[in-house]
């Protein structure tokens, strides 16, 4: 009975609505905004489109009423409705001000509005943090009233249209702007906006319902509108929204069907979550679009079925080809997998060596035809998997096989068969990997493509380098990729003329004038790369002093200068590029002094530093208790320490290392300053060239880690080594002299010389040990740890194997030192050191990182489970009563675990990850470990 009543009511509504409009017979004039994509906008031909437009078209069909769309700038659209020149507005947010002018129908859609923050404002997390900044808004939008309700002290810069707002955003006129969620119609513009204003930097303003609006008191039209929309099914509403947004607004994310066990592309980690190259690309897609992704795992067939049946939205990546069709829509080319030939037992020099042999291949491989052409004098034998081909080669059924190079290498290493097979690099095939979705998911297909348009080649290359240890398997060529600019950007580049670049006369290897007076060094090569990418003409201007160069940049005498620190004070007068070069600081101290890694260790000492460095004001404001000695350049700073005029000299690592290499500084040593190890170099840019900044950043984005290494090697190897007389040569000359002077004292002299050499060697050993080991625990200190970490990365990258870094914190040490004295704390540290050493193998490294912190390197670990067992052993061993009056439960060790290369492919990244995970363990109460 109830079902019958509901059906009757629905039919009456439909009949009434249909009849109501049929009787009137005149079209309904609807005014709309012209650039609020994807809700209401006009295309290049002036045709109306968007979610609200399609909803009104459905309303028109439902009510049999003609509708006419009239597009205007947003402010003008409201004005036209208020003057009675339209019957209704297609949809807008209801505010108190608008409610005084218009009446509103029921909600037909909704939109989330955000404040988008420039990437330099990532630390701003509340609306009150944005009071110093003008917020870009479209004049007449609801954003102003909504934001003032949240923070009355905000100020605004108003634009006539969304297009003019975004133009101002790109040109740096505002660092904060208000806008709807979603993406822009212009992919190039969308990419530029997201690169400057990352989705993760946005602040939610409001989730606003969208209502049709009519002129005040036109309640009859309101009733007509409500009746018509009430007759449209919720299923049709959802289909229209998904067509434009790509996702259901209620779902707020997409599910990615994921195939496991195809390392290094996808595998299941020890944490039970998928990891790998494809997974990281999808995480980046999510970061760019703001759309969460959820992974559902399975094998190849079940993951495809998940997409077909609708339990997953997309497939993570599938080798779709003419020979292997899934019946799904190829939405996006995700990657290209390189396949090569692997021979068993011995390497081959050319393909002729394979004549008359059997070669294995998988039947679904798209390159079978090309393989037959490449080796016509062989026979192909097909197998269902790489594992079966490896077994067949071992048993002598085939001489070689062709398969995915990266996956095969990983499989061979994992199964201890790496030495049995040899890769032939000259035979290579590429297999396209596609993101798949259902053919009817047109909106999702567009959204996927738009999201991948936001990802730069440099970002993809960075992910690829993390997972593809063999550079020959990589496909992203950032260095040779062509940058795409909008028409206004191309016009601006053509108008720039000559770009003046300031540099220092003698600051090797970063920048200097060579013997011909030409701009040389690392910065010169980066600037040349930028000028080539942007097609700019350069004029290099040389300066002798750093302060003179900065002054020239501030005055506009030069347009750009490299290696400029981005500080709050300088940001008021200059613009800055993205970071382009690591720029940590180092300390030079006499060789007989204990190595220094933190500024706190220098309290009361004389510190030499180059004039004009921003670090000068940082050190003075931090009140480290230092006596600063200002010097002209790197050489003067090292000389001051050598002559005893300063206790320490601070300088950029790369410049200090270069000068130490060239000069005679055998009595000095260098250590990295941990307090400022994360600093990077930027280009400082005069505000007159503001429009050039985003394009410079695009060019900098093509400089990946490999290119950085090439540039570094190119300039460092050019530095001459200073000639140094060896100790042995000096002694031998002295022996010869004494022999000629008096043969009578030869035996005595040899005896005394032997004693002196022995003493010196013992002293050098002691100094070397002191410089590289902690004096209390005798463990390797941070200096030696850095070296061993770098060596571990190098060796394991060559072997395509994994290792682990454990960051261990002792929670009670500070309390013990405070309550029971430092002697008791030292005894505890010694006991902990012994337990840590007993918990690992002799081939592993246990180092003291800080006062209460240790770092452990576990070499050649097969998987996370083994590392977790070691962590459990450490926790168990430290749960004993180590020192008399200190209960075991008070020790509270916290351990963070990072795995190479999954958690980082450099020493710095691994330490950062392990440190971050250690703090997570510490926040959990200690006595536990955390992994990613």
From TrEMBL:
InterPro entries: DGC-Regulatory_Protein (IPR052163), GGDEF_dom (IPR000160), Nucleotide_cyclase (IPR029787), Rev_trsase/Diguanyl_cyclase (IPR043128), Solute-binding_3/MltF_N (IPR001638). The keyword Acyltransferase does not apply. Residues 1-22 form the signal peptide. Keywords: Membrane, Signal, Transmembrane, Transmembrane helix. The chain crosses the membrane at residues 731-751. Gene3D superfamilies: 3.30.70.270, Periplasmic binding protein-like II (3.40.190.10). This is Diguanylate cyclase. It comes from Shewanella sediminis (strain HAW-EB3).
């Amino acid at each position: 009975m109830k079902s019958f009543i509901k059906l009757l009511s629905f039919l009456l509504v439909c009949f009434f609505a249909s009849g109501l409009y049929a009787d009137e017979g005149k079209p309904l004039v609807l005014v709309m905004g012209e650039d609020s994509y994807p809700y209401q906008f006009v295309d290049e031909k002036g045709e109306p489109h968007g979610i609200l437009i399609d909803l009104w078209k459905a309303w028109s069909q439902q009510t049999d009423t003609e509708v006419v769309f009239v597009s205007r700038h947003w402010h003008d659209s409201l004005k036209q409705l208020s003057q009675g020149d339209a019957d209704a507005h297609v949809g807008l947010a209801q505010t108190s001000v608008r409610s005084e002018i218009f009446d509103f129908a029921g909600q037909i859609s909704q939109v989330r509005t955000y404040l988008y923050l420039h990437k330099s404002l990532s630390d701003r997390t509340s609306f009150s943090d944005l009071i110093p900044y003008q917020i870009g808004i479209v004049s007449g939008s609801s954003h102003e009233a909504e934001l003032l309700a949240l923070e009355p002290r905000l100020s605004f810069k108003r634009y006539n249209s969304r297009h003019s707002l975004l133009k101002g955003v790109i040109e740096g006129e505002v660092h904060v702007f208000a806008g709807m969620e979603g993406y822009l119609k212009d992919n190039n513009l969308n990419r530029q906006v997201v690169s400057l204003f990352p989705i993760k930097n946005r602040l939610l303003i409001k989730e606003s319902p969208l209502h049709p609006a009519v002129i005040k008191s036109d309640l009859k039209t309101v009733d007509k509108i409500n009746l018509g929309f009430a007759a449209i099914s919720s299923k049709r509403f959802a289909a229209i929204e998904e067509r434009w947004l790509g996702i259901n607004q209620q779902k707020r994310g997409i599910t990615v069907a994921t195939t496991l066990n195809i390392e290094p592309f996808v595998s299941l980690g020890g944490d039970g979550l998928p990891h790998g190259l494809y997974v990281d690309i999808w995480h980046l897609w999510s970061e760019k679009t703001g759309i969460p992704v959820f992974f559902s795992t399975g094998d190849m067939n079940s993951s495809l079925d998940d997409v077909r049946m609708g339990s997953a939205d997309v497939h993570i990546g599938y080798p779709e080809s003419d020979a292997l069709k899934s019946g799904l829509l190829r939405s996006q080319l995700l990657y290209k997998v390189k396949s090569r030939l692997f021979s068993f037992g011995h390497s081959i020099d050319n393909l002729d060596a394979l004549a008359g042999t059997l070669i294995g291949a998988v039947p679904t491989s798209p390159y079978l035809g090309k393989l037959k052409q490449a080796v016509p004098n062989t026979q192909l034998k097909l197998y269902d998997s790489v594992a079966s081909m490896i077994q067949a080669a071992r048993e002598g059924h085939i001489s070689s096989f062709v398969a995915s190079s990266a996956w095969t290498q990983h499989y061979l290493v994992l199964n201890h068969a790496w030495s049995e097979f040899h890769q032939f690099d000259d035979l290579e095939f590429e297999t396209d990997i596609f993101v798949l979705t259902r053919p009817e998911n047109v909106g999702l297909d567009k959204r996927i493509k738009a999201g991948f348009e936001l990802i730069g080649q440099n970002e993809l290359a960075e992910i690829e380098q993390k997972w593809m240890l063999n550079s020959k398997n990589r496909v992203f060529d950032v260095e040779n990729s062509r940058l795409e600019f909008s028409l206004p950007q191309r016009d601006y580049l053509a108008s720039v003329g000559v770009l003046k670049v300031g540099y220092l006369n003698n600051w090797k290897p970063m920048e200097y004038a060579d013997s011909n007076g030409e701009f040389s060094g690392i910065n010169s090569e980066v600037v040349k790369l930028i000028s080539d990418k942007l097609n700019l003409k350069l004029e290099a201007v040389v300066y002798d002093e750093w302060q003179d160069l900065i002054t020239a940049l501030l005055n506009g005498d030069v347009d750009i200068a490299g290696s400029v620190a981005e500080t709050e004070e300088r940001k008021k007068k200059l613009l800055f590029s993205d970071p382009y070069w690591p720029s940590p600081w180092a300390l030079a101290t006499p060789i007989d002094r204990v190595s220094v890694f933190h500024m706190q260790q220098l309290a009361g000492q004389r510190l030499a530093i180059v004039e004009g460095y921003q670090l000068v004001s940082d050190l003075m404001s931090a009140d480290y208790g230092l006596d600063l000695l200002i010097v002209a350049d790197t050489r003067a700073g090292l000389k001051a320490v050598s002559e005893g005029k300063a206790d320490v000299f601070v300088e950029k690592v790369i410049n200090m290392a270069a000068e130490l290499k060239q000069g005679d500084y055998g009595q000095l040593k260098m250590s990295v300053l941990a307090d400022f190890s994360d600093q990077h170099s930027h280009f400082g840019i005069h505000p007159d060239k503001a429009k050039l900044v985003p394009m410079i950043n695009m060019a900098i984005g093509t400089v990946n880690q490999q290119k950085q290494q090439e540039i570094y090697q190119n300039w460092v190897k050019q530095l001459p080594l200073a000639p140094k007389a060896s100790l042995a040569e000096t002694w031998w000359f002295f022996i010869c002299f004494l022999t000629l002077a008096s043969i009578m004292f030869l035996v005595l002299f040899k005896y005394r010389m032997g004693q002196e050499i022995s003493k010196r060697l013992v002293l050098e050993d002691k100094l070397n040990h002191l410089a590289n080991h902690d004096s209390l625990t005798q463990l390797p200190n941070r200096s030696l740890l850095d070296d061993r970490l770098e060596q571990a990365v190098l060796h394991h990258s060559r072997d395509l194997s994994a290792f682990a870094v454990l960051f261990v914190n002792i929670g009670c040490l500070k309390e013990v030192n405070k309550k029971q004295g430092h002697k008791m704390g030292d005894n505890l540290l010694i006991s902990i050191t012994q337990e840590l050493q007993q918990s690992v193998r002799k081939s592993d490294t246990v180092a003291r990182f800080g006062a209460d912190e240790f770092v452990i390197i576990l070499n050649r670990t097969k998987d996370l489970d083994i590392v977790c067992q070691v962590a459990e052993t450490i926790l168990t061993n430290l749960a004993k009563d180590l020192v008399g009056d200190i209960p075991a439960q008070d020790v509270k060790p916290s351990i963070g675990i990072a795995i190479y290369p999954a958690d980082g492919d450099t020493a710095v990244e691994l330490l950062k990850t392990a440190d971050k995970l250690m703090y997570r363990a510490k926040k959990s109460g200690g006595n536990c470990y955390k992994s990613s």
